[in-house]
Amino acid sequence: MDITLHFAPNTCARVPMIALEEIGCEYHTELVAFMRGDHQSPQYLALNPKGRVPLLVVDGKVLTENVAILHWLSSEFPEAKLLPVYQNNFDNALVIADLAFCASTLHGLVTRLRIPHFFCDTVEAIPRVFQMAEQAMRPNFALMDERLSKGLWWYGDQWSIVDVYINWIWFRVAGTAFDTSPYPHLARHSMTLSQRPSVQRVLRRHEEAAEWLASRGLEVKFDGAGAVKAAAS
Ligand SMILES: N[C@@H](CCC(=O)N[C@@H](CS)C(=O)NCC(=O)O)C(=O)O
Description:
- By secondary structure, this protein is of the alpha+beta class.
- It folds into 2 domains: about 5-80 and about 200-225, Glutaredoxin (3-Layer(aba) Sandwich); about 90-195, Glutathione S-transferase Yfyf (Class Pi), Chain A, domain 2 (Up-down Bundle).
- Helices cover about 55% and strands about 5% of the residues.
- It has 9 helices and 4 strands.
- It has helices at about 15-25, 40-45, 65-75, 90-115, 125-150, 160-175, 185-195, 195-215, 225-230, and strands spanning about 5, 30, 55-60, 60-65.
- It has a 4-stranded mixed beta sheet with strand order 2-1-3-4, with helices on one face.
- β1 (about 5), α1 (about 15-25) and β2 (about 30) form a beta-alpha-beta unit.
- α1 (about 15-25) runs parallel beside α3 (about 65-75), α1 (about 15-25) packs antiparallel against α6 (about 160-175) and α4 (about 90-115) packs parallel to α6 (about 160-175).
- The radius of gyration is 18 Å and the shape is globular.
- The protein starts with a strand and ends with a helix.
- The mean pLDDT is about 95.
- The structure holds glutathione (GSH).
- Glutathione binds next to α4.
């Protein structure tokens, strides 16, 4: 099977890359340079008209959306145990609900926290976009922290790719002005996850990719915190 993951460093494409490392299969990667507009190029849009990463190409067939990509990887490579599998449809649907929670509710808020200036058209409104996203995110962080207080992983003793997805959310939010100190279990979860070899390999890959882009003046500057500060001053 020929698998290629299109990714940009530190984006949500980190999650399927860790999934592929957990699986241990051979796969190729294509680095998408957002600052060069690669994701809006005719060639990329021909593959993925949504102009986003992650994008998985499997034997020439294209799959987008993390929920679908992670679900497919989990079903195709069951030995990697990326997601729990239950005997009844309802419990399996609950697992999809967890992926969808990350991809829809949480990811949408992460974007507003990181790049609030993309969600308004006046400088004065930037801090308000951030504050509203922060208010909306807090109950979700409380919910996740509470769940992680009960076990090592999202599903108790069983690690899953949902842990990686949640941790990507945490990592993105922790890099903003959002105060993460009320969530010790999420912080602990992040420390525990960082011990995993697959995670360490992918973080190195993303760092190298980010350095490569920076050396060519193509690094992505997500300066949401700076924009909030500048607007407030
Ligand atoms: N619903 C998609 C969202 C993917 C997405 O928004 N990816 C971001 C990176 S984290 C992206 O490609 N952004 C580029 C853009 O919006 O121009 C999924 O869950 O896979």
